């Protein structure tokens, strides 16, 4: 009876601590993990079972960010599962594997979800058998063709005379899907073609990376390809199935691949507010923003707020080591 009473009391105490932590989370968002005390940091660690993380700007820029690999290795020591979710379909498998290896992360690519994979799996799920019109990077097209899908793309070379653009408004009945995913060679004729095909309601509209801005260097955000996807959405009056961040469908696909069923027990880590923190909010993950490309002031002024923030993953290593010991 004494043992049972003790267990009951401890369970009630644990529930009280958890409830207090969740209440604090709601009142004090976002929480600076670099400033919390040891008890609060342990409560943070206990609040999730799975880590999903972005790659570019979180684990590496051009080279690995200090301590990023150690962070994930420590997460595993805490019993957390570790997975990666990136909007970057541009990298090849070999490039990703090299990046993970340089950061000291084992099995990174195996546990990585990117839009090209999600797009291919979606098309399989609907038994798609027509042509895909791709306004996407070569690697996405390679993934689709390797999965047995027929793709059309281009044009890359176009006339200087605008009147010649009329040919790009002609429909192609062979096209059954339009895919946008990180085409940095996008041009007006490609947009014309996409808008024309999407006039048919039976044409599937899929979007991978939606990034309006990309960090080409640490202190500078520049225009990304998501701005062109937005133009096609407005002109075609169609909304794509978002198989890239911050799309809820993409987050749910990543959960399915990782055999995770409870989103509230996932911590999503990213460096971009709209894409990374937006994904977390759309799916119901806890969110951690690393300030590698954003200032604290920019974060606080944004309408989307993370649950937690830190200077970088490496900045949390001392606290993780203390909590582990």
From TrEMBL:
<dbReference type="InterPro" id="IPR023214">
    <property type="entry name" value="HAD_sf"/>
</dbReference>
<dbReference type="GO" id="GO:0016791">
    <property type="term" value="F:phosphatase activity"/>
</dbReference>
<feature type="binding site">
    <location>
        <position position="56"/>
    </location>
    <ligand>
        <name>Mg(2+)</name>
    </ligand>
</feature>
<comment type="similarity">
    <text>Belongs to the HAD-like hydrolase superfamily.</text>
</comment>
<keyword id="KW-0460">Magnesium</keyword>
<dbReference type="InterPro" id="IPR006357">
    <property type="entry name" value="HAD-SF_hydro_IIA"/>
</dbReference>
<protein>
    <recommendedName>
        <fullName>4-nitrophenylphosphatase</fullName>
    </recommendedName>
</protein>
<feature type="binding site">
    <location>
        <begin position="86"/>
        <end position="88"/>
    </location>
    <ligand>
        <name>substrate</name>
    </ligand>
</feature>
<feature type="binding site">
    <location>
        <position position="245"/>
    </location>
    <ligand>
        <name>substrate</name>
    </ligand>
</feature>
<keyword id="KW-0378">Hydrolase</keyword>
<keyword id="KW-0479">Metal-binding</keyword>
<feature type="active site" description="Nucleophile">
    <location>
        <position position="54"/>
    </location>
</feature>
<feature type="binding site">
    <location>
        <position position="271"/>
    </location>
    <ligand>
        <name>Mg(2+)</name>
    </ligand>
</feature>
<feature type="active site" description="Proton donor">
    <location>
        <position position="56"/>
    </location>
</feature>
<dbReference type="GO" id="GO:0005737">
    <property type="term" value="C:cytoplasm"/>
</dbReference>
<dbReference type="Pfam" id="PF13242">
    <property type="entry name" value="Hydrolase_like"/>
</dbReference>
<dbReference type="InterPro" id="IPR036412">
    <property type="entry name" value="HAD-like_sf"/>
</dbReference>
<dbReference type="GO" id="GO:0046872">
    <property type="term" value="F:metal ion binding"/>
</dbReference>
<feature type="binding site">
    <location>
        <position position="54"/>
    </location>
    <ligand>
        <name>Mg(2+)</name>
    </ligand>
</feature>
<dbReference type="Pfam" id="PF13344">
    <property type="entry name" value="Hydrolase_6"/>
</dbReference>
């Amino acid at each position: 009876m004494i043992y049972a009473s003790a267990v009951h009391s401890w369970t009630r105490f644990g529930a009280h601590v958890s409830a207090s932590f969740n209440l604090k989370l709601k009142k004090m968002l976002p929480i600076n993990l670099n400033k919390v005390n040891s008890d609060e940091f342990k409560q943070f660690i206990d609040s999730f079972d799975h880590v999903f993380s972005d790659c570019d700007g979180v684990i590496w820029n051009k080279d690995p960010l200090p301590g990023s690999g150690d962070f994930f290795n420590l997460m595993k020591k805490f019993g957390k599962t570790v997975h990666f979710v990136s909007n970057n379909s541009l990298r090849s498998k070999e490039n990703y594997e090299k990046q993970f290896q340089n950061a000291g992360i084992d099995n990174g690519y195996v546990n990585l979800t990117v839009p090209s994979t999600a797009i291919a799996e979606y098309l399989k799920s609907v038994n798609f058998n027509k042509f895909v019109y791709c306004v996407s990077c070569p690697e996405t097209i390679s993934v689709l063709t390797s999965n047995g899908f027929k793709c059309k793309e281009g044009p890359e070379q176009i006339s200087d005379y605008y009147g010649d653009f009329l040919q790009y408004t002609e429909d192609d009945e062979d096209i059954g899907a339009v895919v946008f995913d990180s085409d940095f060679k996008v041009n007006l004729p490609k947009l014309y073609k996409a808008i024309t095909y999407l006039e048919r309601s039976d044409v599937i509209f899929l979007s991978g990376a939606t990034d309006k801005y990309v960090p080409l260097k640490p202190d500078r955000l520049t225009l990304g390809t998501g701005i062109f996807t937005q133009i096609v959405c407005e002109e075609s009056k169609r909304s794509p199935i978002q198989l890239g961040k911050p799309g809820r469908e993409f987050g749910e696909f990543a959960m399915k691949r990782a055999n995770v069923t409870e989103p509230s027990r996932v911590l999503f880590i990213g460096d971009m507010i709209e894409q990374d923190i937006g994904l977390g909010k759309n799916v119901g993950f806890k969110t951690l923003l690393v300030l590698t490309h954003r200032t604290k002031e920019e974060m606080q002024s944004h309408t989307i707020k993370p649950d937690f923030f830190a200077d970088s993953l490496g900045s949390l290593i001392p606290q993780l080591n203390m909590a582990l010991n």
